[in-house]
Amino acid sequence: MIDFKNIEGLYFVGIGGIGMSALALYFAKGGYQIAGYDRSESRITLSLIENGCDISYDDDLSVLPDLFRNTSLKNRVLIVYTPAIPAENKILLYFRDNGYMIHKRSEILGEISKNTDTLAVAGTHGKTTVSTMIAHLLKQSHIDCSAFLGGISKNYNSNLLLGDSRYTVMEADEFDRSFHRLQPLMAVVTSLDADHLDIYGDQATMIKAYNEFCGKIRRGGNLIVNRRIVKEIIVPEGVKCYTYGLDSNADFHAKDIKRSNNSYSFNIKTPATTIEDLHFAFPGIVNIENFTAAIAVALMCGVTEQEIRKAVFLFQGVRRRFDIRINFPDIAYVDDYAHHPEEIRACITCMREYFGDRRITGIFQPHLFSRTRDHADGFARILDELDEVILLPIYPAREKPIEGVTSRMILDKMKSANKKLLLKEDIPGKLDIANLDVLLTIGAGDIDTLVGPVEEMLKKERVK
Predict the structure, then answer these.
(1) Structural domains of the chain, ranges and CATH numbers in brackets
(2) For 31-71, what is each residue's pLDDT tens digit?
(3) What are the tens digits of pLDDT across the range 405-441?
(4) Residue 60: partners with Cβ closer than 8 Å, 6 or more residues away
(5) CA–CA dist 91, 279 (Å, integer)
(6) Residue 34, SS3?
(7) What angle do CA 240, 246, 250 make, to 5 degrees?
(8) What distance in Å separates the CA atoms of residue 159 and residue 145, rounded to the nearest whole number?
């Protein structure tokens, strides 16, 4: 149990991360002194500074504010870190060596989840989109909610939502078994594709961890599971389980799906009724499936059918999740966070649905040496479905290099004749803009730093 009563400030090591930044902003809004370190400036860190946070980009003790540097004050502060921070980080080592109260981000989220009715979304992919959809449905209703999101909601331009409600929406992150800290009232499990095998070793162990997470659901709570994976899930005693999906046998399923231009209309069949005439101006049938899960949770929280109908229509999406930056007849540009073969498959499927037979050029930055090693074959197969592929070097994040594991592993396994390796910094100068039709950037590393420059470059080229 963490006692926040006598705490004056929190220091976040890795404050620029999407999950860490939401927590930092949450406590800043609560009146705490907030400071933190990250290795580089970003849109997120600049936004935190605007909200009163003190952020440094130097791993140097001299930049620590007095409240956090003075060891005589260490009982008045909490140190929060993410496992993505290297063990040799000087600032984190200082706090450890001097006996500060240090907690993982997941521990702090766990404390918050104990004191609210948490709606947790787990899954190897889809959790950011589904959690943002749930938060949007509740926020646009009489129910309201708070939310810690793994992406920037375009509707609210934030990854943190605060509200006057007993409900809090959270992503349940499987990395480092972080989701075992949560105690949700309701939970969604979207997918169980093999991932984070550097942590779990194999998929069976990963699935076991997901079932341990499901065991954390409070008695009397609800579990909502994608029907495709329900056989892998052990339903805890005292918890009701519902399935969702596009399968007509699911408890909550989408049906009568119709597409007109770039929008969809559909109905949702629930155990009690059918919600008719929903309209959704967002790409991809997979997102209708995602909304089916979100609608199931919203109904269980008391959101009305009419509130759902309006909120679905107004949903704008999540930044870096099929994020359409440019959409002209002669040039289009989409950015996406996908970093697992199945996520990339879903993204490319959406691209083909949305852009038809137009020529798609993809720029992919692999994320993690271990994931590249474990899924090189899968990456190669799905990237071959693009018309042209540019591979960037692996973004290592928290990992040290693994001998023999590079982006060339993927390149050599691809059958496409239109493939090449480039450095990230070479992209603006070597991108063949004149022959581009549809451009897609994919990855969870720092490929997002390309988005602004590439978007600007494409717009300037078009007006020449």
Answers:
(1) 9-104 (3.40.50.720), 116-314 (3.40.1190.10), 323-462 (3.90.190.20)
(2) 999 999 998 888 899 999 999 999 999 999 999 999 999 99
(3) 999 999 999 999 999 999 999 998 888 888 899 999 9
(4) 90, 91
(5) 50
(6) strand
(7) 30
(8) 13
